[in-house]
From TrEMBL:
Protein name, as recorded: ATP synthase subunit a
Biological process annotations from GO: proton motive force-driven plasma membrane ATP synthesis
Recorded family membership: Belongs to the ATPase A chain family.
Gene coding for it: atpB
Keyword set includes Cell cycle: no
Pfam families hit by this protein: ATP-synt_A
Species per Swiss-Prot/TrEMBL record: Pseudoduganella ginsengisoli
Localization annotation: Cell membrane; Membrane
TM stretches of this protein: 37-55, 91-109, 137-156, 168-190, 210-231, 238-260
GO molecular function annotations of the record: proton-transporting ATP synthase activity, rotational mechanism
Superkingdom field: Bacteria
């Protein structure tokens, strides 16, 4: 059963508490997770604002803390791009930086106390909120679909529409004459499996790790205050590694997939 709190039914037990924190704020027709949409959009603006300020304040003299941080991020991403992507592209580095920082910011929302944002928004009549966009499988799939579009676009740009289409039917098994005709359907199936496995693995890997982390923080919040301090601190420290690693993996795999897209078999 539930209890009335602030004109709204509040969770009365651990099961309802978990279900409440795993429920999305949805649009009127129930088709859009508004919390995922707005939080990811706001964090995207935060990323753009921080990097824009760093660019405007950049100096060739002694750099400030913000410039040092941004340069460190750009150097990390640039090293990854240079080691994996050997073709020429003016898009790949900005894309990689955007993915890494944006995904990291969304992952880092997991560090906020579980009840902080929901309690604040209760004053505005909002009683459901999930603050980690990457713990929403719809969002991670949406990002991976964007990566899929980039893979196809990079392939067509590098090989031409005809070259890319030909590759779908002639690789990975090469043959000539009648053999090529028989192997074409097999090649096409393998190409489609490879093409769609990439975004699916990207999205599920990020979603699974962040959903598990979110759930663990919710379970810790159910413990007595002394147990929260005892377990919450070490888990939060360990989760810093997970948050950063998952953002880096999503970015690095995107770069690798795009590098494979522009290479000829």
């Amino acid at each position: 059963m539930t209890t009335e709190h602030g004109g709204h039914a509040a969770p009365a037990n651990a099961t309802e508490y978990i279900q409440h924190h795993l429920s999305h704020l949805k649009s009127a027709d129930g088709t859009i997770n508004l919390d995922t949409f707005w939080i990811s959009a706001i964090l995207g603006l935060v990323f753009l604002t921080i990097f824009m300020l760093a660019a405007r304040r950049a100096t060739s003299g002694v750099p400030g803390k913000l410039q040092n941080f941004v340069e460190w991020v750009m150097e990390l991403v640039n090293d990854t791009v240079n080691s994996a992507f050997h073709a020429k592209s003016n898009v790949i580095a900005p894309l990689a930086i955007t993915i890494f920082v944006w995904v990291w910011l969304m992952n880092a929302m997991d560090f906020l106390p579980v009840d902080l944002m929901p309690k604040i928004l209760e004053f505005f009549g909002v009683y459901k909120l999930r603050v980690v966009p990457t713990a929403d499988v719809n969002h991670t799939f949406g990002m991976s679909i964007g990566v899929l579009i980039c893979i196809i676009g990079f392939s067509i740009k590098a090989k031409g529409a005809g070259g890319w289409t030909k590759e779908l039917f002639t690789a990975p098994f090469h043959a000539h004459g009648v053999g090529a005709i028989f192997l074409a359907p097999v090649n096409f199936i393998f190409q489609m499996l490879e093409l769609f496995a990439k975004p699916i693995s990207l999205s599920l890997r990020l979603f699974g790790n962040m959903y598990a982390g979110e759930l663990i923080f919710i379970l810790i919040a159910l413990l007595p205050w002394w147990a929260q301090w005892l377990l919450g601190g070490p888990w939060a420290i360990f989760h810093i590694l997970i948050v950063t690693l998952q953002a880096f993996v999503f970015m690095a795999l995107t770069v690798v997939y795009l590098a494979l897209a522009v290479e000829k078999h």
